[in-house]
Amino acid sequence: MLQSNNVWKFIGFWMAWHMHLCALVNNSREVAMSSSITLLRHLCATVIVFILVALGSFAYAFPVTELFISEYIEGTSNNKALEIYNGTGAVIDLASGGYNIQMFFNGQMSAGLTINLTGMVADGDVYVLAQSGADAMILAQSDQTNGSGWYNGDDAIVLRKGTVVIDSIGQVGFDPGSEWGTGLTSTADNTLRRKLTIVSGDPDSLDSFDPFLEWDGFTQNTFTGLGSHEIIAPVITPTPEPSTCLLLGTGLFGVFLLGRSRNK
Ligand SMILES: [Ca+2]
Ligand SMILES: [Ca+2]
Ligand SMILES: [Ca+2]
After folding, report:
1. Fewer CB within 10 A of the terminal residue: the chain, N end or C end?
2. Which pLDDT tens digit goes with each residue over 232-241?
3. For residue 166, which ligand has an atom nearest its CA?
4. Distance 171 CA to ligand 3 centre (A)
5. Furthest C-alpha separation in the chain
6. How much distance in Å is there from the Cα of 139 to the middle of ligand 2?
């Protein structure tokens, strides 16, 4: 896949090629190059540039570089589930990647439960980890279940890759009393869904946690969003490297010369 700087470089090369063409046109009588061939070359170069720029734009469709938690269900009894979203553009093997979920109960600094994730999660798909005693609607969406005692609203949750924290809910080592947040957007007796504009996890599990910043809240036992997730990809403006700027400048100068030679 083309990276943004490669696209800019190609545009630079294309413009530099125009400068070369400019020299050809200046000597057109000598080399007897027909105007129809020149036009054809122009058209071919333009089409190639547009195709490559279009291909390069796909690179911006994957702003997600790592898994993150996209949904958190803390319902009645054992209606508990975590949905993990893969927007990285590639399938992820959870076991070989060493991905795991940890739960820190009641303000403790050490994990009370660690669940190693297994299986594959396709690009654009989610992986659902559910408590084994959850509602049938939750279990129908689950990819993995676990029968231990889970969180009940005042417990921090961490998603790790190996030993590296890549996302977190709550604050490890802190007991909020009963929940983080208020109303529907709180960690107890609600469903929390990651806002569509969030494209990466919260890797700092030790700082204060405010669910309103990254989550939308839904009433207790809302299961309808489990099993899929969407994001709104941010617009990323490619920044050309200095060498690319030089190439673009040279190309632009070539185009300028070409225009002058034609106006003679
Ligand atoms: Ca608890
Ligand atoms: Ca945090
Ligand atoms: Ca979801």
Report:
1. C
2. 977 665 555 6
3. 2
4. 22
5. 87
6. 28
